[in-house]
């Protein structure tokens, strides 16, 4: 019954969070005692009643303020100086701008939208096909939540007690850069030379100015992530400092943000956070009901009975998350599955930080896979080439990302080396 | 009738050699399942929610048995008299008081107020001060030191009364606050201090035992009344044994913890009876006055407790 | 109709924006104080959490009004535009019903044990009531005041869904006409 409502709701386009809430309300409202309607609200409230969770709206706000202050063009100019002269320069700038953007924002969707607006038209002008430009933009923006700061990491650390945000933040850096390198190599190998598209003409500014312009925003991730890593501030406090710094840059340094636009920025940040947080609330309520009926215990017992080796378990986990990532929004998938899989992984001797990054990387790939891939939606919204063509164009990038995922899975040092060196 | 299921929830680890509530839960399950046709499902480690939420669930008979400590006094304010600092000079006196007339009367009062039947009392243990600045032997040594306290008014009043500066900080922020010097010290049971590595951030511990925290083994009375008299008897007996099991495990980990923190370099001081009396003299009046204001007519429980303790201490 | 929608949008945006601004200001100032003067206020954690929950409820309604929620569109993409718009109008009705039911659920939740104290806000609530002489301000320190967010969120969602429904219906009629 509860699943039928959920499936019909999802298929007909009821927003995901509301479909979950509706199914729970029907179940609790008509279910036999001791269930009661009240439990849904109780557990939703509980799902949001957490201080670390506040890092999410604050990082979203920092990202929106950064965007508003014209940061995107500075990041692009900076990336242009780094890689614009290489073969397939414009495509490389797209990728590395995402790496820099990743340090400022925890959200891949924001990255797709900010960079896509500039690059999809620009790359087409230089002879790339429009679907390719859109696909590359979406594929490289996945780096955003892997390199810190990262909303999925904050949520992961909330779900799994004993895995710290700083350790996960550090662990994401190498995988994020590896992904950028693999995408870059792939692009350089496959893009035909006669594009002759070196991106030098992208901005008229001299290199020195572009570098200077990129330094101020780049101080933010260094400072914010650095202070979290040093254990000086909690992620939530650091996020508030990030907002303050972004406001300072936008209002006093770049002077692109008028005080009159602040109300809009604040309300849009809360609106975009609400879309995430309401899913968290709805899934927590659903999780409580599942726990109450011991579903996780039964699943755990089943897995332990049927999966005997670490390798089998990891491959099964990857396939499961790739499959789930096709249909489910990443955070919802994490909230449901991680509480079950994490203890099993640790029991099998997988490093908890390693496992965390694998799960996050895995689900971020889900952002570019149809039918439900948020970055894909945003890129399509900008490019308007049709889902079918975009899906074909993104397929090669999907395989590159899965390849990197396999590398991270079977060479754990790529993930845990950095946190180890830093003493976590 | 269909065999009934007891859902039993608590927030401690699911383990019986070091986790007091874990041990209590397991022995309760074994006895009840062995001697009745009831099934007991365990929900450890906060799987169903934090203590406040567990109390609310038990009041709704969603979760039938819960093992909680601090959350009880929010549902039944009279229970907060147990938190008056330096009330119990030893755990055995606390046991005598709680297992005697006072404990029974409090259980009855809280049953009427909350619909929750206190089947038995366990213990979370005595709380002690640690700090990184100097050894504390008398209240004068607390002067000017900043102590992290839970954001609970009673603790704020207590530290103020002792001459320290109370700073409410969330538990998750505590290690940070200690290592950056935002606060000089904190207070917790020994087991909590050792298991969370706080002794590595602090140099001195004083075993002043300012607050004795009891565990409450609670059952939804609605559910309890649905049991047969024979089942009720088994459940009540199993809970008393569980409470004693929890107390023993707690005593074990405290004794072990005191030795371990010393082995790892912490200086531990056990105050004399006279010194404890000096602490009590400074801390109690402020807290008692605050509590009288809070409790209203429930304030009689303060006097009842003090009488029972006096009788038990003879 | 347009003006009603615009008024609702502004109201939701005001609630969401105000909460975001307050949450940022409280956390920022409180952490600055902690790392500079070494002191922080006891309500510095609880209040931003509760404000965020209210903010989420307004943001949820705002996002609904602007069609910003994450939904699963693979099946609906196959439908023709006019059929899809009708389907989404039906979805609005489902969302409306969900909002109403959620409001009931939230009301039942908040009144059940709402008069318990929110520990971090207790002294602040008492202080407010004493200094202003307005006794009802002690409600600042009661969890029910904040728990009521879910009920209000359900009501706001119902309003947003109803408005969206009428907006879609009139758009469909405009196309047909
Ligand atoms: Na990031
Ligand atoms: Na990109």
UniProtKB/TrEMBL annotation, chain A:
Gene Ontology molecular-function annotations: transmembrane transporter activity
Residue span(s) of domain TRAP C4-dicarboxylate transport system permease DctM subunit: 5-413
InterPro entries attached to this UniProt entry: DctM (IPR010656), TRAP_DctM (IPR004681)
Transmembrane segments: 7-30, 50-66, 99-120, 132-159, 165-189, 210-232, 238-254, 274-293, 313-341, 353-379, 391-418
Subcellular location: Cell inner membrane
Superkingdom assignment: Bacteria
GO CC, one annotated term: plasma membrane
Keywords: Cell inner membrane, Cell membrane, Membrane, Transmembrane, Transmembrane helix, Transport
Signal peptide annotation: none
Membrane-topology annotation of the record: Multi-pass membrane protein
UniProt xrefs under Pfam families: DctM
PANTHER family: SIALIC ACID TRAP TRANSPORTER PERMEASE PROTEIN SIAT-RELATED, TRAP TRANSPORTER LARGE PERMEASE PROTEIN
Family in the record: Belongs to the TRAP transporter large permease family.
Function: Part of the tripartite ATP-independent periplasmic (TRAP) transport system.
Assembly information from the UniProt record: The complex comprises the extracytoplasmic solute receptor protein and the two transmembrane proteins.
Protein name stated in the entry: TRAP transporter large permease protein
Native organism: Roseibium aggregatum
TrEMBL record, chain C:
Location within or outside the cell: Cell inner membrane
Keywords, sorted A to Z: Cell inner membrane, Cell membrane, Membrane, Transmembrane, Transmembrane helix, Transport
Superkingdom of origin organism: Bacteria
Transmembrane region(s): 12-29, 49-66, 87-110, 146-166
Membrane topology type: Multi-pass membrane protein
Gene Ontology CC annotation, any one: plasma membrane
MF (Gene Ontology): transmembrane transporter activity
Domain Tripartite ATP-independent periplasmic transporters DctQ component: from-to ranges: 24-169
Broad class of where this protein is predominantly found: membrane
GO biological process, one term: C4-dicarboxylate transport
Similarity annotation: Belongs to the TRAP transporter small permease family.
Cited function: Part of the tripartite ATP-independent periplasmic (TRAP) transport system.
Quaternary context: The complex comprises the extracytoplasmic solute receptor protein and the two transmembrane proteins.
Name of protein: TRAP transporter small permease protein
């Amino acid at each position: 019954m509860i699943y039928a409502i959920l499936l019909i709701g999802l298929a007909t386009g009821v927003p995901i969070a509301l479909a979950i809430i509706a199914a729970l309300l029907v179940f609790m409202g008509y279910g036999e005692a001791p269930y009661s309607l009240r439990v849904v609200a109780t557990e939703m409230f509980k799902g949001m009643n957490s201080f670390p969770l506040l890092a999410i709206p604050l990082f979203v706000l920092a990202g929106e303020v950064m965007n508003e202050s014209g940061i995107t063009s500075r990041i692009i100019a900076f990336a242009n100086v780094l890689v614009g002269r290489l073969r397939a320069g414009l495509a490389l700038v797209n990728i590395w701008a995402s790496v820099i953007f990743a340090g400022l924002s925890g959200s891949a969707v924001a990255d797709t939208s900010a960079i896509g607006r500039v690059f999809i038209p620009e790359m087409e002008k230089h002879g790339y096909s429009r679907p390719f430009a859109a696909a590359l933009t979406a594929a490289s923006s996945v780096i955003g939540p892997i390199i810190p700061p990262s909303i999925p990491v904050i949520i992961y650390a909330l779900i799994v007690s004993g895995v710290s945000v700083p350790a996960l933040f550090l662990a994401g850096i190498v995988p994020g850069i590896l992904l950028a390198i693999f995408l870059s190599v792939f692009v350089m190998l496959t893009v035909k030379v006669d594009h002759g598209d070196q991106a030098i003409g992208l901005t008229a500014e001299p290199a020195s100015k572009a570098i200077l312009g990129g330094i101020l925003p780049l101080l933010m991730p260094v400072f914010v992530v650095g202070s979290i890593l040093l254990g000086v501030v909690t992620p939530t406090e650091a996020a508030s400092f990030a907002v303050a710094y972004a406001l300072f840059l936008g209002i006093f340094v770049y002077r692109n943000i008028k005080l009159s636009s602040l109300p809009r920025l604040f309300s849009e940040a809360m609106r975009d956070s609400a879309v995430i947080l309401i899913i968290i609330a709805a899934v927590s309520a659903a999780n409580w009901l599942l726990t109450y009926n011991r579903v996780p215990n039964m699943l755990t017992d089943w897995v332990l009975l049927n999966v005997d080796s670490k390798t089998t378990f990891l491959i099964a986990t990857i396939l499961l998350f790739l499959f789930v990532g096709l249909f489910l929004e990443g955070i919802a998938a994490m909230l449901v599955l991680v509480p079950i899989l994490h203890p099993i992984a640790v029991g099998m001797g997988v490093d908890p930080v390693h496992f965390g990054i694998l799960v996050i990387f895995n689900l971020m790939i889900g952002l570019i896979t149809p039918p439900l891939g948020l970055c894909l939606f945003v890129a399509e919204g900008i490019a308007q080439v049709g889902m079918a063509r975009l899906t074909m164009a993104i397929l090669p990038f999907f395989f590159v990302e899965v390849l990197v995922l396999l590398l991270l899975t079977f060479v754990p040092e790529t993930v845990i080396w950095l946190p180890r060196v830093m003493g976590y | 009738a269909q065999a009934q299921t007891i859902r039993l929830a608590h927030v401690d680890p699911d383990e019986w050699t070091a986790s007091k509530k874990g041990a209590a839960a397991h022995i309760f399950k074994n006895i009840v399942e062995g001697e009745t046709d009831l099934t007991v499902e365990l929900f450890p480690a906060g799987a169903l929610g934090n203590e406040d939420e567990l109390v609310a669930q038990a009041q709704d008979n969603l979760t039938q048995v819960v093992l909680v400590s601090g959350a009880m006094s929010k549902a039944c304010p009279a229970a907060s008299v147990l938190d008056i600092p330096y009330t119990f000079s030893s755990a055995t006196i606390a046991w005598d008081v709680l297992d005697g007339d006072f404990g029974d009367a409090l259980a009855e009062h809280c049953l009427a107020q909350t619909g929750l039947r206190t089947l038995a009392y366990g213990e979370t243990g005595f709380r002690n001060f640690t700090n990184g600045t100097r050894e504390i032997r008398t209240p004068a040594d607390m002067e000017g030191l900043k102590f992290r306290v839970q954001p609970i008014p009673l603790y704020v009043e207590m530290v103020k009364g002792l001459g320290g500066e109370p700073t409410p900080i969330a538990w998750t922020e505590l290690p940070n606050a200690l290592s950056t010097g935002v606060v000089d010290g904190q207070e917790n049971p020994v087991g909590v201090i050792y298991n969370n590595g706080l002794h590595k951030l602090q140099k001195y511990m004083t075993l002043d035992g300012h607050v004795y925290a009891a565990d409450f083994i609670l059952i939804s009375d609605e559910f309890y009344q649905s049991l047969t008299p024979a089942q009720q008897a088994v459940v009540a007996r199993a809970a008393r044994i569980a409470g004693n099991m929890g107390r023993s495990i707690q005593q074990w980990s405290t004794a072990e913890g005191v030795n371990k923190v010393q082995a790892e370099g912490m200086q531990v001081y056990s105050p004399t009876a006279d010194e404890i009396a000096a602490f009590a003299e400074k801390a109690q009046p402020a807290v008692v006055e605050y509590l009288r204001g809070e409790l209203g007519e429930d304030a009689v429980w303060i006097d009842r407790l003090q009488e029972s303790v006096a009788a038990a201490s003879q | 109709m347009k003006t009603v929608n615009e008024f609702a949008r502004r109201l939701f945006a005001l609630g969401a924006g105000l909460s975001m601004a307050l949450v940022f200001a409280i956390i920022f100032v409180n952490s600055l104080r902690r790392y500079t003067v070494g002191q922080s206020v006891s309500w510095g954690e609880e209040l931003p959490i509760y404000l965020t929950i209210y903010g989420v409820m307004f943001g949820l309604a705002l996002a609904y009004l602007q069609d910003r929620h994450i939904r699963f569109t693979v099946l609906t993409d196959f439908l023709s535009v006019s059929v899809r718009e009708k389907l989404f109008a039906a979805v609005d009705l489902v969302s409306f019903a969900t909002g109403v039911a959620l409001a009931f659920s939230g009301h039942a939740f908040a009144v059940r044990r709402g008069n318990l104290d929110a520990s971090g806000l207790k002294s602040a609530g008492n202080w407010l009531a004493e200094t202003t002489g307005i006794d009802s301000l002690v409600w600042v320190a009661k969890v029910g005041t904040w728990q009521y967010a879910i009920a209000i969120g359900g009501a706001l969602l119902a309003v947003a869904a109803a408005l969206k429904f009428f907006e879609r219906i009139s758009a469909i009629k405009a196309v047909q006409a």
